[in-house]
Amino acid sequence: MNDSILKVSDLHVSVAEKEILKGVNLSINKGEIHVLMGPNGTGKSTLGYALIGNPKYEISKGSIVFDGKDITEDAPDERAKAGIFLSFQNPLEVPGVSLSSFIRTALEEIKGERIKLFEFKKKLKATMEVLNMDPEYADRDLNVGFSGGEKKKAEILQLLMLEPKFAILDETDSGLDVDAVRTVSAGIEEYQKRCNGSLLIITHSAKILESLKVDKAHVMLNGVIAKEGGKELIDEINEKGFLENEDL
Questions:
Q1: Where are the alpha helices (DSSP H) in the chain?
Q2: I want to staple 38 with a disulfide (CB 3.0 to 4.6 A). Which of 87, 144, 165, 220 is the partner?
Q3: Which DSSP string do the residues of 32-62 spell out, in sequence order?
Q4: pLDDT digits over 129-157, tens only?
Q5: CB neighbours of 224 closer than 8 A, spacing ≥ 6?
Q6: For 156-211, how does the pLDDT look when each residue is reduced to its tens digit (9 = 90+)?
Q7: For residues 92 and 122, is the Cβ–Cβ distance under 8 A?
């Protein structure tokens, strides 16, 4: 049985004709948590956007296989329907669309069927309680007037409601206080309990990882994954940094 959910092979990606990823290889199995670390500007977010299919990120070489299917040429909506989710580093504000209706519409698009309002509201309320979110946020315009922490909680709420097979969390812990980081970590744990989903967590900080079972850590430098290891690699990076570590 093939346990692989994602296999990236020799991936080269350019933005505005500048090559950012220069041959990335990455393999993630079902139910695993992987962490991607590295200095700013090395291509971490570029990998996330390439995996979700952002058209600005042009794949010139290599392949992306998701759940046994080559999705290298697939459109973003096809990838989302297949079960890929990206939590944005800087979530956009969407005036005129409530958080609740945004999530319900996304769910209906993914499932290809109407969702009963009563059942949706019941699940949404229970999920917001997991994240200690005020129920009133469900009726507010998506991310409009939200603090940084509230935007990140809203992203995790979407993750829990949509239940994708694979989630990419890009700097979800950035700018959060200790309590908010704990809440986000609890949301990630809840996600894995609900659907045994796989995660690629892009981060500079180890705080969000403290309560999570990390299966593998990767360090990206100059557009390639330069080193891989277990959770001990995260501790090593925290102690020595990226550039000071001669093994990198």
A1: 44-52, 76-82, 99-111, 117-130, 148-162, 178-195, 231-240
A2: 220
A3: -EEEEE--TTSSHHHHHHHHHT-TTEEEEEE
A4: 989 899 999 999 999 999 888 888 899 99
A5: 21, 22, 23, 24
A6: 999 999 999 999 998 877 767 778 788 888 899 999 988 889 999 998 766 777 77
A7: no
What are the beta bridge partners of residue 24?
Answer: 11
AA identity, residue 112: G
Q: Using only C-alpha atoms, what is the Rg of the chain?
A: 18
Domain 4-17+29-46+95-240: what homologous superfamily? P-loop containing nucleotide triphosphate hydrolases (3.40.50.300)
The answer to whether the Cα torsion of 239, 241, 242, 246 is positive or negative is negative
**Residue corresponding to tokens 């059942």:** 119
| Tokens representing residue 164 in the block | 């994708």
The two beta strands, 198-202 and 33-37, are parallel
For Cα atoms 31, 35, 41, give the angle at the middle one, nearest 5 degrees: 140
Torsion region of 27: left, alpha or beta (phi above 0 gives left; psi -120 to 50 gives alpha): beta
Is the pTM above the cut of 0.85?
A: yes
Domain spans in the chain, listed from the N-terminal domain onward = 4-17+29-46+95-240
Paired residues of 146 in beta bridges: none
Q: Sorting pLDDT into bands at 50, 70 and 90, what band is 91?
A: confident
Is residue 129 classed exposed, middle or buried when 0-12, 13-18 and 19+ CB atoms within 10 A define those classes? exposed
